[in-house]
Amino acid sequence: MVKFSKQFEGQLVPEWKEAFVDYWKLKKDLKKIHLLNNEKTESNKKNNSFSCTLISYINKYTSLGPKQREHRVIQVHQKLAASACKGDMYETELLEQFADTDAAVKFFACLDLQLNKVNQFFRTKEKEFLERGDSLKKQMEILIELKTAVKQQRAKGPSFQDSKEEDSISGTISCDEESIKDRTDQEQGLENSTDELDKNDMQCTESPTSGELGKPIRMKKENGKFRSLSSRTINYQGKNLRIHIPMTNPTRTFSSITYLLWDDLVNQSSKKCGLDENKLHINRTKLHHAEKMIRGAFVELYKGLGYLKTYRHLNMLAFIKIMKKFDKVTNKQVLPIYIRVVESSYFNSSDKALKLADEVEELFIKHFAEDDRRKAMKYLKPTQRKESHAVTFFIGLFTGCFLALFVGYVIMAHISGMYRPKSNTVYMETVYPVLSMFSLLFLHLFLYGCNIFMWRKTRINYSFIFELSPTKELKYRDVFLICTTSMTAVVGVLFVHLSLKSKGYSYAQVQVIPGLLLLVFLLVLVCPFNIIYKSSRFRFLSVIRNIILSPLYKVVMLDFFMADQLCSQVPMLRNLEYVACYYITGSYKTQDYGYCMRTTYYRDLAYTVSFLPYYWRAMQCARRWFDEGHKSHLVNLGKYVSAMLAAGAKVAYEKEKSVGWLCLVVVMSSGATLYQLYWDFVKDWGLLQFNSKNPWLRDELMLQKKFIYFFSMGLNLVLRLAWLQTVFHYNFGSVDYRVTGLILAALEVVRRGQWNFYRLENEHLNNAGKFRAVKTVPLPFHEVDDQD
């Protein structure tokens, strides 16, 4: 049977962990009482007598009347808090002596503190969700009215004139810097307000309902003008509204700008023709975007209300369990008294959140699921995929096949002398890049699977951080299955290729095999059929598209996380570039493997590929600075610029190996390395905090053993210095220099793998510090101040 403490830890909301009952601290205090009781019992046994035993027996079973007398061991006092937002405060008074009264007083003081903390947090979150619910209801009403008005206007034609001025709706779509800045200011206000909520005493803030979900805001004027592409607003039933569709992708950005220009043309023509200027000029596409935003906000609100329900249930169980243990240890009847108080406290007695959840469910079913409850529940309560034992079986099967084929390939390559300094040049220049490319790719994917395993084990909510769908995300077993299957196929094909070559087949006959292997993998990646993890493949392609088109797309966590992975895969990208050139130009037919190296455009492309991942990442930093306005993104941009300069110097040194270029490589790489190490340790990992309770680390750590963090920092430092191979040109014994390059590239991938864990650990702790458990969803309709 699973212990309650394990069950409690496994079911609580990770980002709200500090707001839950500190069950482990209460157990420690109770253990102290238990030890003191045992000591006193042993001492009493020496002085025990028959009379004492008889008196205790009589006291225990003495009854007054037909019912046993209820001993009031404790009395819980209810007091009004100094601040109204804290609600009622509870304080327990002991009416009987305990074996160790001081320990019991400390236990109940801690218990009262936990009860007050739970009540306050529940009150804060409930008020936040209720205000969010009211805002969403108003947003839904506006959306329904606008959709109805659009349909009526389309049905009655462009010459239709509405007789009632209050029902006339005019508007444009604004999705410019203003909407982004206002939303950013709102989120900053949220962070400032939640930072004031101390985790220990849970003090209430002035405005706790500013909302992790976001809420519609009243837009302010700056210098008497609105910063927008168009100053026109929507006048809806006497209220000025503005629709904000965030510029999350190029299509939405260009369509919004086009729509603004078209709206201005329509308004100018309306003025010339004497038509009413306040006519509706919002098309269905814009309303569809607004509808999607509201639907997403409803889903997140429902998820937050579900978390609040879990919060109520688990805390109630925790109080019951700890009081049962207390009664068992002290032989007192305290459970009924204290649990009666807990049951009547605010977090357990308030049903506002439950009613709101029912309302949200009804609204969603009616407006977004066409009265189909089953369809609505797919959005509101998505079910996670069940893990199959068949996946584990195939992982073991393909792992064995891979190891067997790899050993056979290594033996055959050793006999053929392929990887020695004086090896077969054609093979090493044409086939080996394919093996190197796939090895680096699937090593990276394998480490990502290890990251998922560790994130789940340490309760890091990576799905929320990456905004992954719980029904479609890859589990670590799925990732391991992809790696083992793919590498089995790669090594098997290359083993067959090497076997055919050793049997006397010419390169002209077998050289097409590695190219076909690469082509098959590309076809599987873009396969439109619902096979082989289609949703994950298409999500990967969409993320790559977002990275390539930076800074046109709004940057989310998954985008810049993947861009960082590409920064560690520059050797793989260069191998891909060479293999593509080798097969596209038809060089494999003539075995002219040096053709691409002699071509000017290929050398220029090699230079571009070397710094392209850093350029994409720098553009993402620029976009985040534009959206959020934080100067730290500009500092981060400088890190990638320094990496671009270092990569460019290395490529130039490879072309012209002179002392001048070598000195430039050393200077640029040293500066970039110091820049990157500082950002890794301080910014990405949140370590090296000198005033922390964990010296040189940070206050909150997900791993119990602190030496792991110091070891990881040292390993990261060593692996960051892999560029020194460019200077010293060291090799591992008699191994070909290309194999040495592969080993160093693999070490960089390993460094990135460990970086990934600490990066998400720091992100998770930031979310937990702000109690942010659901996504911030901006709302489309915002009321504008009338002071023009």
UniProtKB/TrEMBL annotation:
Residues 597-788 form the EXS domain. Residues 154-216 are annotated as: Disordered. The chain crosses the membrane at residues 390-411, 431-455, 476-500, 512-533, 659-678, 707-728. The keyword Transport applies. Residues 2-340 form the SPX domain. It is a multi-pass membrane protein. This is Phosphate transporter PHO1-like protein 1. One of its GO terms (biological process) is phosphate ion transport. One of its GO terms (cellular component) is endomembrane system. It is found in: Endomembrane system. PROSITE patterns: EXS, SPX. Keywords: Membrane, Phosphate transport, Transmembrane, Transmembrane helix, Transport. Coiled coil: none annotated. It comes from the Eukaryota. It comes from Forsythia ovata. Its main location: membrane. InterPro entries: EXS_C, PHO1, PHO1_SPX, SPX_dom. Pfam families: EXS, SPX. Belongs to the SYG1 (TC 2.A.94) family.
